[in-house]
Design goal:
The complex is a heterodimer of chains A (214) and B (549). Chain A folds into two domains: 1-43, no CATH class; 47-213, Up-down Bundle (Butyryl-CoA Dehydrogenase, subunit A, domain 3). In chain A, 57% of the residues lie in helices and 14% in strands. Chain A has helices at 48-68, 86-95, 99-129, 135-149, 154-165, 178-196, 200-213; strands at residues 13-15, 22-24, 31-33, 40-42, 72-76, 80-84, 167-168, 172-176. Chain A has a four-stranded antiparallel sheet with strand order 6-5-8-7. A two-stranded antiparallel sheet of chain A has the order 1-2. The longest helix of chain A has 31 residues, at 99-129. With 549 residues, chain B is an alpha/beta fold. Helices cover 32% and strands 29% of the residues of chain B. Chain B contains eleven helices and 26 strands. Chain B has helices at 27-46, 127-130, 245-250, 279-282, 344-348, 353-364, 367-381, 427-444, 447-502, 507-535, 539-542, and strands at 13-14, 47-55, 67-70, 73-83, 90-97, 109-113, 116-118, 121-123, 133-137, 147-149, 162-169, 180-183, 186-196, 203-210, 222-225, 229-234, 237-242, 253-256, 272-276, 291-296, 309-312, 315-328, 333-342, 383-389, 397-403, 419-421. A seven-stranded mixed sheet of chain B has the order 6-9-3-4-5-2-10. In chain B, strands 11-14-13-12-18-15-19 form a seven-stranded mixed β-barrel. Chain B has a seven-stranded mixed sheet with strand order 24-25-21-22-23-20-26. In chain B, a hairpin with a 6-residue loop joins β13 and β14. The N and C termini of chain B lie far apart (208 Å). Classes of the chains: A alpha+beta (214), B alpha/beta (549). Chains A and B meet through β2, β3, α1, β6 and α6 of A and β1, α1, β4 and α2 of B.
């Protein structure tokens, strides 16, 4: 770790997230507007941890019905209704021998959202501890979660397309179940949480440590 | 200004806002929790009861696919299918919609609906694509029930107005469940079920007659089998009876009430009726109005069947009702015993006016008088029953009452019931006896002797012919050469005669010529004479007249 770097925060400056202009905030001020593009800027995102924590908590709550409620309802001829949950789909795929597909769905739809929740929870917990030992690892984890985040919407897209395409009225029709809404909520909430979690906070710990050292 | 006050960096615009200890963002997890809980509670409360149905076989029942229906509306879904503990039954677990939980009461019946195609129609066609489903019929009980025993068969129609009757048929014929029931060729009901009677002697068929047609079923209504084609070999030849095309293919039962029973009250629900083989039999006069007689024939009754007509002077007046045997221990005589029923109305219908009434009153009311009349007919006029053949080809027989004045006297007991009537030898029997006598005569001919004699004669003939052969050979050897010699002699004699008589220088030639010349002349004059005589026949009497120019 390079001990010689100086944070913008230490100088009372902040970069605009829209136009990247670095401007100085009056002393003691945390928030302001970019003098060039007018976007709000802040030294550190206000309530960053709190908001992210609230969003992660929401996502965690939504994760339960997303997996318990059916994501798709299949109405077939004769009045039969089939409700499919994500876990049910995985088991169906595994049961029919396509273990690879089952693994893909298991990883993409169950493990990754869960992993994101756990990772975010870890990041929040860790940053609140103000320890600097693993700032680099945490930063890497943060970026991984940020990159992966949008791909989880794949399930929602698949469900939407299936619902839109399989509408052979008398024979078979598929309607979305409440589960997919919760699933989408999980994905969106985690993405927002990532967005709200200010990565700069991570380095403040290090900077503090640096200051302390100095 | 202080735009570049600090390190030459631009100064950001400042906004002031109050510091909140708790961010509003915490409303989001609250909202999520409320939403999730709400949906969870809604789903839990919307969930109906889970029931268990035990079937003997899980015909096409699939967990997660098979639905439960009531009046064609889905009310639940099968969630699991597994064996009962002893593997003899299939336990089906089903989730019922909350709205239909009121149907799960005591007495609710469940059965599997599978596609069923018959002549009368196609049912459960939707199950061809969607798979079988479980149909239910709610019970009448009030107490909620969660465990049921499924039926193996679709139960009888329960919510239609009408009445059910029990039919007893000797055999099922082409009847099947759903086979139509006809009243005046109008489909008014159907066969609901059938089973073998407890004693195994008949088939019990349950039929349902829809309202308002059920009012047409009276206590005396007759049912008969309208199934398919009824080809019967009767005394009148081959009879073919067919009902409507549907009945022809699917079978069915028809019913009607004879006109003389129209006044009887409608039959009660569950009344039992007999199924007659055909309309004619069904609509016949009932037995109570018949007089029964017994006949002991001496001939074989082969070809005589129950239902064969009984005729009087060739007109049908009754029918054969039973055929059996009788055995007399003292005489060891085994004779066919034939019961015949005499229908007075049928017989009376052959008479006219007062005679009809007389016959009716005679036969129906006054038993004593009836017997007296019969006795007189038998003793004075020679009334006899005999078997007659209606067709020599089919061999069918019937009972004919005929007056045979020369019949031998019969000794009958007039006090018995049924009354025994005397019989005479049947037509077939007579024919048989005639044939037998012819055969007897042929049999008595000394065929063997004739044969031996013929054989002897033939042998003698053979011997004679052998002798003739020897003789001819002898003639050939001895006589023929001599004939040759004789002929040569004859030839020579003829040659010398020829030379003497016909040679150019034969001495007799000249004389012969002259003789012939003279003969020619005399012939000419004879011709002239005849010519003259032809012209002048009178010359024979008057002599030759003068020649006139």
């Amino acid at each position: 770790m390079n001990p010689s770097f100086v944070t913008a925060k230490a100088r009372g400056c902040a970069a605009c997230r829209a136009c990247s202009l670095v401007s100085h905030l009056p002393d003691g001020q945390e928030d302001g507007f970019c003098p060039r593009c007018g976007e709000p800027i802040c030294i550190r995102r206000r309530h960053s941890r709190q908001t992210a924590a609230a969003l992660v908590a929401s996502a965690a709550i939504c994760y339960v019905p997303a997996n318990l409620l059916p994501v798709m309802r299949t109405y077939s001829l004769g009045g039969g209704v089939e409700e499919d949950t994500i876990i049910g789909g995985v088991m169906l795929l595994y049961g029919s021998g396509s273990w690879f597909l089952a693994l893909v769905v298991l990883v993409a739809s169950i493990m990754i959202p869960l992993g994101k929740l756990v990772a975010l929870g870890y990041l929040l917990w860790h940053s609140s501890l103000h320890r600097n030992a693993s700032a680099h690892e945490e930063s890497r984890l943060y970026h991984v979660v940020e990159v992966i985040g949008r791909w989880s919407m794949l399930d929602v897209f698949v469900a939407s397309y299936t619902v839109a395409l399989v509408q052979l009225r008398p024979l078979i029709s598929i309607v979305p179940g409440p589960g997919i809404l919760f699933f989408a909520a999980v994905v969106i909430l985690t993405m927002l949480a990532v967005e709200y979690l200010d990565p700069r906070l991570n380095w403040d710990v290090t900077a503090k440590g640096y200051e302390h050292h100095v | 200004m202080s735009e570049h006050s600090n390190h030459g960096l631009p100064e950001a615009t400042v906004v002031r806002h109050k510091r909140l200890r708790l961010s509003v963002v915490w409303l989001i997890p609250l909202l999520a929790a409320v939403l999730a809980l709400g949906i969870l509670i809604e789903r839990l409360t919307a969930q109906g009861p889970t029931i268990k149905i035990t079937f003997s076989a899980g015909e096409g029942i699939e967990a997660g696919k098979t639905v439960l229906k009531y009046r064609d509306v889905t009310v639940g879904q099968v969630t699991a299918v597994h064996f009962a503990e002893d593997f003899h039954k299939v336990e089906v677990t089903a989730k019922i919609a909350k709205s239909a939980s009121g149907l799960m009461v005591e007495g609710t019946r469940f059965w599997v609906v599978a596609p069923h195609i018959s002549i009368t129609g196609i049912s459960g066609i939707s199950t061809l694509l969607s798979g079988n489903f479980i149909e239910l019929s709610p019970g009448t009980g009030k107490q909620a029930e969660r465990s049921f025993i499924g039926l193996d068969q679709q139960p009888r129609i329960t919510d239609q107005a009408g009445r059910r009757f029990i039919l007893s048929a000797p055999e099922l014929g082409s009847l099947s469940i759903g086979a139509p029931l006809y009243f005046r060729q109008l489909p008014v009901g159907e066969v609901e079920s059938y089973e073998l009677a407890k004693d195994g002697q008949a088939v019990t068929v349950t039929v349902f007659v829809r309202s308002p047609y059920d009012a047409q079923v009276h206590a005396e209504t007759r049912f008969w089998n309208a199934s398919g084609v009824d080809v019967s070999l009767g005394e009148a030849g081959i009879n073919v009876h067919t009902a409507s095309l549907l009945a022809l293919l699917a079978g069915g039962v028809s019913f009607d009430t004879p006109s003389f029973f129209m006044q009887t009250p409608p039959a009660s629900d569950g009344a039992t009726f007999k199924v007659h083989p055909d309309r004619a039999t069904a609509m016949k006069q009932p037995e109570a109005y018949a007089r029964r007689y017994v006949l002991y024939f001496n001939d074989s009754v082969r070809g005589l069947s129950v239902g064969a007509p009984v005729t009087l002077m060739g007109l049908t007046v009754g029918e054969v009702t039973d055929i059996g045997l009788s055995f007399d221990e003292t005489t060891l005589a085994v004779r066919p015993r034939v019961f015949v029923s005499f229908y007075p109305e049928l017989a009376a219908s052959k008479f006219s006016g007062k005679q009809r009434d007389a016959v009716l009153s005679n036969t129906q009311q006054d038993n004593e008088r009836h017997i007296r009349v019969i006795r007189r007919l038998v003793e004075e006029r020679g009334l006899r029953a005999r078997l007659r053949s209606s067709s020599l080809i089919t061999g069918q027989q019937y009972v004919a009452f005929e007056f045979l004045p020369g019949a031998p006297k019969s000794h009958l007991d007039w006090g018995h019931e049924p009354l025994e009537l005397p019989v005479a030898r049947g037509e077939i029997a007579e024919l048989e006896s005639t044939l037998a006598s012819i055969l007897g005569k042929i049999d008595r001919m000394p065929l063997a002797k004739i044969g031996t004699e013929a054989a002897g004669s033939l042998e003698a003939l053979h011997k004679t012919l052998g002798d003739a052969d020897v003789l001819l050979k002898d003639v050939d050897a001895k006589t023929v050469p001599q004939i040759g010699v004789a002929l040569a002699d004859v030839h020579r004699a003829l040659e010398s005669a020829n030379a003497t008589l016909l040679g150019p220088d034969a001495p007799n030639q000249q004389a012969l010529h002259e003789a012939l010349e003279q003969l020619s002349r005399s012939a000419r004059s004879l011709r002239q004479l005849t010519d003259y005589l032809e012209r002048h026949p009178e010359a024979l009497l008057r002599g030759k007249s003068e020649e006139k120019p």
